[in-house]
């Protein structure tokens, strides 16, 4: 924006020879100059007011973007923390349901829970309760006489609900240590499907609070982790009285969440009545919402200071138009500098979010693509094959007798075995367009675009022979070494409309391979 300057030039007349028309002309020039000055001042005032309003909107919008990015980052962090705990619970449930819960096995289970807890700093404890709520094992080696957790919300939930998914309970005080924790739990079943107990992980609330407190949210900013039932799980700033408080009648649940799973707004807090700039996002895969908010008054504090400065400059314009340009340029430079800093901060947050998304598509153990990446890739490739009428093939790979391998050699050896097999798979698919992924547990999958069932069978056999030739010893296998079975399926556009159809066909072929003696590749009919 340019800055207008006014130059007033008046002609003086000789006092000795008064000339009325000349005096009138001079007065008119003065009036014109005054009018021009007033017009310039009014224009500058209008411009400054308009820029002040735009700066106000810019500050608010910038804060909304910051809160949206912060909510997304914190939601990813919460999802990762809970997912780590839930993965441990899934493994413990699988172990208990397969190996049993006899008293002779409890000491080993207790040692396992203690070792697993030590791997994750956010875990307060891992606990196993029988169908009556009695303590069977815990990672903290806590001994509580007649301890019983049948009155806990998560125990009652699993006892009354047959679903096998994870359950996020309300924040509670630990009976063993007295600390505030959030619970993640899973149901244990008997072989006939009856309720057999609960395995639970407690996560320190301080794990979340330490992160939230490390973020500069101003003196009156808040970060909330809220359950789907509208109760507060943890809130920064921390106040024990806030835990469990319902915000169902607050704007988050009445206005914002009905419109979408994420977003930004300027609303008045239901808890303390403060108007804030908020960003919110649901935690993927779990019934939680992250809610981050800055005090609107604090967001606009710098804007008010800038506006007062501009007002002072405008008042000086009446007598110091020459200084105005310099001051306004300085203000604009300050605003540009602030804008650049905000944009740089935004770009850094976007880069961090992008990195988190990339990490979310890779299997941590093997380095292959994970199930999520596989689902996205197979859906895209089926669409491409359908449009271009090209071929597409899928391999399903399962490690033979892997459970007995784990039981005999231990989980660390099992993990190393999976890493070796993943390397073999990667070495035997050379095209850039192919994808190898860990499907789950000891099961892998390979997507081969532009390949029919013959080519896919040749790749499958290369992988099978390479695994066999690696000579990984396995005393529990009839072969005496680790082998794999493979199911091969080519995409049929008529019979397979969804990825599940193609996966199901390859899985059936894999089942036939295992039922027929293992260590072989079978093509789907």
UniProtKB/TrEMBL annotation:
Domain named GGDEF: residues: 390-525
CDD domains: GGDEF, PDC1_DGC_like, PDC2_DGC_like
PROSITE patterns: GGDEF (PS50887)
Reaction(s) catalysed (UniProt annotation): 2 GTP = 3',3'-c-di-GMP + 2 diphosphate
EC identifiers of the protein: 2.7.7.65
GO terms (BP aspect): cell adhesion involved in single-species biofilm formation; negative regulation of bacterial-type flagellum-dependent cell motility
Transmembrane regions listed in the UniProt entry: 32-53, 308-329
InterPro entries membership: Diguanylate_Cyclase (IPR050469), GGDEF_dom (IPR000160), His-kinase-like_sensor (IPR054327), Nucleotide_cyclase (IPR029787), Rev_trsase/Diguanyl_cyclase (IPR043128), Sensor-like_sf (IPR029151)
Annotated localization: Cell inner membrane
Listed name of the protein: diguanylate cyclase
Native organism: Pseudomonas lini
Lineage of producing organism: Bacteria, Pseudomonadati, Pseudomonadota, Gammaproteobacteria, Pseudomonadales
């Amino acid at each position: 924006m340019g800055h207008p300057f006014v130059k007033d030039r008046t002609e003086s007349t000789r006092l000795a020879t008064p000339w009325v028309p000349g005096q009138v002309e001079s007065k008119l020039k003065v009036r014109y100059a005054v009018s021009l000055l007033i017009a310039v001042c009014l224009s500058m005032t209008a411009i400054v007011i308009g820029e002040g309003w735009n700066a106000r909107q810019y500050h608010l919008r910038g804060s909304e973007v910051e809160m949206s990015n912060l909510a997304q980052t914190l939601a990813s962090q919460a999802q990762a923390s809970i997912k780590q705990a839930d993965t441990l619970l899934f493994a413990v449930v699988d172990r208990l349901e397969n190996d049993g819960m006899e008293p002779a096995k409890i000491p080993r289970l207790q040692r396992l829970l203690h070792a697993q807890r030590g791997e994750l700093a956010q875990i307060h404890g891992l606990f196993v309760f029988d169908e009556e709520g009695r303590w069977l094992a815990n990672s903290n080696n806590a001994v509580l006489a007649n301890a019983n957790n049948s009155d806990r919300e998560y125990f009652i939930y699993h006892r009354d609900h047959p679903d096998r998914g994870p359950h996020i309970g309300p924040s509670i005080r630990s009976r063993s240590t007295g600390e505030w924790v959030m619970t993640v739990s899973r149901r244990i079943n008997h072989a006939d499907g009856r309720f057999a107990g609960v395995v639970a992980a407690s996560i320190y609330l301080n794990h979340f609070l330490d992160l939230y407190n490390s973020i500069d949210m101003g003196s009156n900013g808040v970060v909330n982790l809220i359950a789907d039932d509208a109760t507060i799980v943890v809130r920064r700033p921390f106040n024990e009285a806030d835990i469990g408080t319902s915000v169902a009648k607050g704007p988050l649940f009445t206005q914002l969440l009905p419109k979408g799973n994420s977003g930004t707004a300027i609303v008045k807090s239901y808890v303390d009545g403060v108007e804030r700039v908020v960003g919110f996002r649901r935690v993927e895969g779990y019934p939680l919402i992250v809610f981050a908010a800055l005090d609107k008054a604090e967001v606009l504090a710098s804007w008010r200071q800038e506006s007062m400065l501009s007002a002072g400059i405008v008042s000086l314009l009446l007598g110091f138009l020459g200084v105005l340009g310099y001051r306004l340029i300085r203000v604009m430079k300050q605003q540009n500098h602030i804008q650049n800093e905000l944009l740089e901060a935004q770009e850094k947050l976007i880069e961090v979010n992008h990195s988190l998304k990339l990490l979310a598509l890779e299997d941590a153990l093997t380095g292959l693509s994970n199930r999520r990446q596989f689902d996205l890739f197979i859906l895209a490739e089926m669409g491409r094959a359908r449009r271009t009428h090209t071929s597409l093939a899928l391999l399903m790979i399962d490690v033979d007798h892997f459970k007995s391998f784990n039981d005999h050699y231990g989980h660390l050896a099992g993990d190393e075995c999976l890493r070796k097999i993943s390397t073999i798979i990667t070495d035997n698919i050379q095209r850039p367009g192919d994808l190898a992924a860990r499907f789950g547990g000891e099961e892998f999958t390979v997507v081969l675009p532009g390949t029919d069932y013959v080519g896919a069978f040749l790749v499958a056999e290369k992988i099978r022979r390479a695994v066999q030739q690696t000579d990984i010893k396995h005393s529990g296998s009839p072969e005496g070494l680790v082998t794999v079975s493979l199911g091969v399926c080519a995409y049929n556009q008529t019979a397979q409309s969804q990825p599940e159809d193609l996966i199901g066909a390859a899985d059936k072929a894999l089942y036939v391979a295992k039922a027929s003696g293992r260590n072989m590749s079978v093509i789907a009919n």
